[in-house]
Write a structure and sequence with these properties.
The complex is a heterodimer of chains A (781) and B (335). By secondary structure, chain A is of the alpha+beta class. Helix content of chain A is 27%, strand content 29%. Chain B is α+β, with helices and mostly antiparallel strands and 335 residues long. Chain B is 43% helix and 19% strand. Chain B is built from twelve helices and nine strands. Chain B has helices spanning 2-18, 22-33, 38-44, 54-89, 107-121, 135-138, 171-179, 220-235, 279-289, 309-316, 323-326, 329-332, and strands at 125-126, 132-133, 164-165, 184-193, 205-215, 240-248, 251-260, 269-277, 300-307. In chain B, the strands form two sheets. A seven-stranded mixed β-sheet of chain B has the order 1-4-5-9-8-7-6, sandwiched between helices. A two-stranded antiparallel sheet of chain B has the order 2-3. In chain B, strand 7 and strand 8 (269-277) form a beta hairpin. The two termini of chain B are 82 Å apart. Classes of the chains: A alpha+beta (781), B alpha+beta (335). At the A-B interface, helix 2, helix 7, helix 10, helix 12 and helix 13 of A face helix 5, strand 1, strand 4, strand 5 and helix 8 of B.
Chain lengths: 781, 335
């Protein structure tokens, strides 16, 4: 909301500079989002009267004017605007003026005709954001008047107001807050208040949604332009002048925070009803648009139907026009949620609805009406009826008790009773009962204070948090399962980073296509776009998108991982995924070791990361898309994930020329299956002996089968099995092309003694025999 | 004999002095001290020396052997030293080292972990809650009015079943109190979502850190001390911290925290929201739990929350928030 500092000074004599005022307001909880300078504090710009206007001889769009700038000689100005007529008063920038944007004005020729200055628009003087043609000044403006006198400089604060403080939505409300924090007296307007009378014959409130509705008739007004002071005030808060009556209602809204509405009394067939709209009832607003009202919208209706959408906007038929002579001035309280719903449903938002949504002060209704009447009589003449017609009534003030001990406990500060009471008195509360537990009457403009906690907040605000001590204490905290999960994931992250992988973070919102490969996904009801319509059920699509982005950037080696949440209809889980493609080694001066990352780099990394045995990686019978080949990863017998190579089609789609490798794990399962090592293995006292065996096997025989066959022999002395050579000859020159040569190192050891060569040879022979018999390999002796 | 020994000594020492590599030194050794070397054969001649001359001749020969041995050893040492030096002479230490480059942790992870470590030092444990939340946990229990704008479908993502993507991690406060009796002292790092158009300063999904401490007699002074300590740990002892009164439905009093520190550019920056847990939140918890362990007359507490993206952006002068989710390696490798 815009707050004019000059306007504020009508109510509180605060001469603080804008920056200090900003600090004070921030301390009170009003955030100043911006400080604007208004007005035209520009030298050498004066009011000028246009004396004549002729067509420019060389340019269709330009005209040549003679103007009176207050000096004895008329001045010649070339002008491109069309919105003026001879006799109008406009701002004229004389040679030597510097307009906003460092635009220097000098005498010059435009298409061959001399121009001794420039006539200005409101935008060129930065008096408006947008403007159409020249700024036409009021007709009474004397030529030669400096423009800085017509538009004096002033400072406007753009204030952000929290939704709990509707009382701040007016200049008086902000002035009151300045009073609280400076101790300066606040002078609220005190219009003469008329007696009240029942509005019975004029207004009927039907149903709920409106507790207080008032009307006051003013007869014989002369609707016309507003005086300059009123126009200036409205311009300061960003409003256009409409006419003197409407301007007064807007002025009072920004002055006191109470929205008002003026009906043209001649266009209303009394009595007015405040009622809920029936389904499908149509309302034509001030701007001429028709709205089909949702059932239940609160409206003001007369015999002919809706004349206003309560608290939001007036109707077209009943508004004040230049022909209006008698007006009915509405000042009322409408239910915040009713106003909010109607306003949202129709997409109609106004300064009124903004205030009613947050709640207006019922005690201010009659004052605002009286204030507006006073001003309307002043600027538009006429006479007001002697009484304010009232329907409904102003609710009683709230009363709240406060235990002072509770204040001290919650704030952690030893405040005296006097300090506590002074703080609440400063914000306008009245003490009803004294003692260690006080009782307070809440003024209408602070209706949101209705609990003890609300009063404690006010005390903290007024006393200032800077006076509250800073304590450093707290109990011990036992670690939680979430701590264990956090540490487990952080450990994986750190180790992966140590292995050369870079951590990525991708969005949990993905497209339906991205989610389609990985089972059922959870869809959003109101996504922002199709590409963010589902919650990811796998980390892989996001990482592949990141990989693709890096490929497009020319990255040669891409190794990314992510730890994050995935979503399934059955719940949420924590995953880890890795993607890998490109060069295995950076080119180096040591000589070229060029090769691409391949799937064994990734299976090896996974084994190290998870502390797995070779047999924990088990071929998946049918690889699930997008994998072309993959193995399932087991940890202590539980499947925790999958690792493999993506199908070449995926690679082609994202433009990867090297194999795309990928792994994904369920970290929750992984953590559950993880075992902590409880005992060290004794260090060997006796030497081990290795025997190497080499054989030709059918090309299709997986190494895993060889490994498990050997393991199944349960040779008691066999300590480890290690594949150390693998050779395939596709040309069939050295070995047949349908065979592969494998070489395996067998290590034997006994914890009790040194083995004899006979024992070792015997065990080796049994391994060889088993391989020969079971999988038909040929030993190359 | 004396002359013969002297001649042999000067001949041997000269030859040793001329030996410039290991091979010639070895052949010199063999020539004099080898099995059939000159000194060896001279020593063998001792057998024929008359008994009375043996001590004298023996000493002569021993001195000769010692002198030659010392010369050989000295020369060998020199040669080794020279070859050691030569080995280093060709070593170019300015060649780039070749250890494979390690990977990196995402800047948000690093920042989050710093924050987590700091809160753990203060005795906070981690808590967790789902991203997909019920409206009750995300809004109702947090004292948010039924027609509060944040519940709007324009601002918050909903699922067809009426659940939503949490718009703040404050829902974890509710999850924790629902299941754990006081005292609780937790932090909850996690994602939150707002239905924003993605641009240089907005993401639809962002990262927050939530905190909650509820026990008997927790006061605003505890809140202030805790968060001042945290931010000074994170940004340095010289950090200016300002608590500015604000409004949140679930805390009262509520504050926004502004920070000014050189590492964040030296300007005031709005960083976190915090406040004393609103009694209405405790009442909602009591009703859900069916007991009164969170009776606002018995316990009090504070809660706080802050976003990590903007913090990371200011700490590292990241110009566009989208860089945090684009995962460009040229960006990631800088952390």
């Amino acid at each position: 909301m815009k707050i004019s500092i000059n306007w504020l000074r009508d109510y509180v004599d605060c001469q603080l500079p804008a920056s200090e005022l900003e600090t004070l307001l921030r301390r009170a909880g009003l955030e100043v989002a911006g400080i604007d300078q208004r007005g035209a504090a520009i030298e050498h710009v004066v009011a000028a009267e246009i004396l004549e206007s002729t067509q420019h001889p060389n340019a269709d769009r330009l005209s040549v004017c003679k103007v009176n700038d207050g000096s004895s000689e008329p001045r010649q100005i070339v002008c491109g605007a069309k919105n003026y007529k001879v006799g109008d008063k406009v701002p004229l920038a004389l040679p030597g003026a510097v307009l906003p944007g460092d635009f220097k004005i000098k005498t010059g020729k435009l298409r061959g005709v001399e121009s001794e200055g420039m006539m200005c628009s409101a935008k060129e003087l930065r008096l408006a954001e947008e403007s159409d043609g020249l700024l036409i000044l009021p007709p009474e403006t004397a030529p030669g008047t400096p423009i800085k006198d017509l538009f004096p400089a002033e400072t406007i604060l753009e204030i952000e107001i929290t939704p709990n403080r509707s009382d701040w939505l007016s200049h008086l409300g902000v002035a009151r807050e300045i009073g609280v924090f400076t101790g300066l007296p606040v002078k609220a307007p005190e219009p003469a208040q008329p007696p009240t009378a029942s509005a019975g014959g004029q207004v009927r409130i039907e149903g709920d949604g409106c507790n207080l509705y008032t009307l006051r008739r003013i007869s014989g007004v002369k609707v016309g332009p507003s005086p300059q002071w009123l126009r200036d005030r409205l311009a300061a808060v960003g409003l256009r002048s409409v006419n003197n009556v409407v301007d007064v209602t807007n002025f009072v809204l920004f002055e006191l925070g109470q929205p008002l509405h003026a009906f043209d009394a001649a266009k209303i067939s009394a009595p007015l009803q405040v009622r809920a709209a029936s389904e499908g009832e149509v309302f034509r607003s001030l701007d001429g648009s028709d709205y089909k009202l949702p059932a239940g919208s609160l409206i003001i209706a007369d015999g002919n139907g809706p004349t206003a959408l309560a608290g939001v906007m007036g109707g077209e038929g009943s508004g004040v026009t230049e022909f209006t002579t008698d007006i009915l001035l509405e000042s009322a309280v409408f239910d915040p949620s009713r106003v909010r719903r109607a306003s949202r449903a129709l997409g109609l938002f106004s300064d009124s609805s903004y205030r009613f949504e947050r709640g207006v002060d019922p005690e201010g209704v009659a004052i605002a009406s009286a204030r507006a009447v006073e001003l309307i009589l002043q600027v538009a003449g006429g006479s007001a009826d002697s009484a304010l017609l009232v329907s409904g009534k102003c609710p009683e003030r709230g009363k709240v008790s406060l235990r002072h001990a509770r204040v001290r406990d919650l704030l952690g500060m030893s405040l005296t009773n006097a300090e506590i009471e002074s703080a609440l008195s400063r914000v306008g509360l009245e003490k009803l009962a004294a003692g260690e537990e006080t009782r307070w009457s809440i003024p209408g403009y602070r209706r949101e204070l209705h609990r003890e906690a609300d009063l404690i907040e006010e005390i903290a605000r007024v006393v200032g948090i800077e006076k509250i001590p800073s304590l450093a204490r707290g109990p011990f905290a036992a670690s939680s399962d979430a701590d264990a999960a956090y540490d487990f994931a952080m450990n994986l992250r750190s180790r992966l980073a140590g292995m050369g992988f870079h951590e990525a973070r991708t969005s949990t919102l993905v497209s339906a296509a991205d989610a389609s490969h990985f089972g059922e996904a959870v869809a959003l009801k109101n996504p922002f776009g199709e590409d963010q319509s589902q919650l990811r059920n796998s980390l892989v699509p996001g990482l592949l998108a990141a990989l693709r982005r890096n490929l497009d950037q020319g990255a040669k080696s891409i190794a990314l991982f992510e730890c994050g949440r995935v979503f399934h209809p059955s719940g949420e889980g924590q995953r880890l995924a890795i993607v890998l493609t490109g060069e295995r080694h950076e080119p180096s001066w040591r000589g070229r070791m060029e090769r691409s990352w391949d799937v064994f780099d990734l299976t090896g990394a996974v084994r190290q990361l998870a502390g797995l045995h070779e047999h924990d990686l088990v071929s998946a019978s049918a690889p699930a898309a997008p994998f072309g080949a993959c193995v399932d990863v087991f940890r202590n017998g539980k499947k925790i994930g999958v690792v493999g190579q993506l199908s070449p089609a995926v690679g082609r789609e994202i433009g990867a020329s090297t194999p795309l490798l990928c792994a994904e794990f369920d970290i929750d399962l992984w953590r559950a299956a993880a075992s902590t090592k409880t005992q060290v293995t004794a260090l060997a006292k006796f030497p081990g002996s290795a025997r190497d065996i080499a054989f030709l096997a059918p090309l299709a025989l997986p190494y895993g089968e060889v490994r498990s066959l050997i393991a199944d022999l349960h040779e008691p002395l066999l300590e480890s099995v290690r594949l150390f050579d693998l050779f395939i000859d596709t040309k069939g020159e050295k070995i047949p092309s349908d065979k592969k040569s494998m070489a395996i190192s067998l290590t034997f050891r006994s914890p009790e003694r040194t083995l004899t060569s006979d024992e070792i040879q015997g065990a080796t022979d049994r391994v060889k025999a088993a391989l020969k018999d079971s999988v038909g390999v040929d030993f190359r002796e | 004999m004396q002359q013969q020994v002297d001649a042999l000594r000067s001949e041997a020492l000269e030859l040793i002095a001329l030996a410039h590599d290991a091979d010639s030194l070895e052949s010199a050794r063999l020539k004099y001290l080898g099995k059939s070397g000159a000194i060896t054969s001279l020593s063998e001649g001792m057998r024929n020396v008359p008994k009375e001359e043996r001590p004298f001749i023996g000493k002569l020969l021993n001195d000769l052997r010692a002198a030659v041995t010392t010369a050989l050893e000295d020369s060998q040492k020199c040669l080794l030293e020279a070859s050691d030096l030569a080995a280093f002479a060709s070593l170019d230490l300015t060649l780039p080292g070749t250890c494979p480059a390690p990977g990196t942790l995402h800047p948000l992870t690093q920042l989050m972990d710093r924050a987590v470590c700091c809160f753990r030092r203060m005795g906070f444990a981690i808590a967790d809650g789902p991203d997909i939340e019920t409206e009750w946990h995300c809004f109702d229990a947090l004292n948010t009015l039924p027609d509060h704008p944040a519940r709007n479908e324009l601002d918050t993502f909903y699922l067809p079943d009426g659940r939503l993507l949490r718009s703040h991690t404050s829902s974890v406060q509710i999850r924790v109190m629902e299941t754990t009796p006081p005292p609780v002292r937790i932090i909850a790092p996690g994602s939150a979502y707002r239905r924003d158009e993605v641009d240089a300063t907005h993401l639809a999904q962002f990262t927050q850190m939530e905190g909650l401490y509820v026990a008997e007699k927790v006061s605003l002074a505890d809140l202030k001390g805790t968060l001042e300590f945290f931010f000074r740990e994170l940004f340095g002892a010289g950090t200016d911290i300002q608590f500015r009164p604000h409004f949140f439905p679930f805390t009262e009093p509520s504050y926004e925290i502004d920070i000014r520190t050189q590492v964040l550019g030296g300007e005031w920056m709005e960083l976190a929201g915090c406040g004393m847990v609103d009694p209405a939140v405790f009442e909602a918890i009591c009703e859900r739990r069916g007991d009164r362990v969170y009776d606002p007359e018995k316990v009090s507490g504070f809660a706080f929350g802050f976003g990590l993206e903007r913090l990371a952006m200011n700490l590292s002068r990241i110009p566009d928030i989208r860089m945090l989710v684009e995962n460009d390696l040229r960006f990631l490798k800088q952390f």
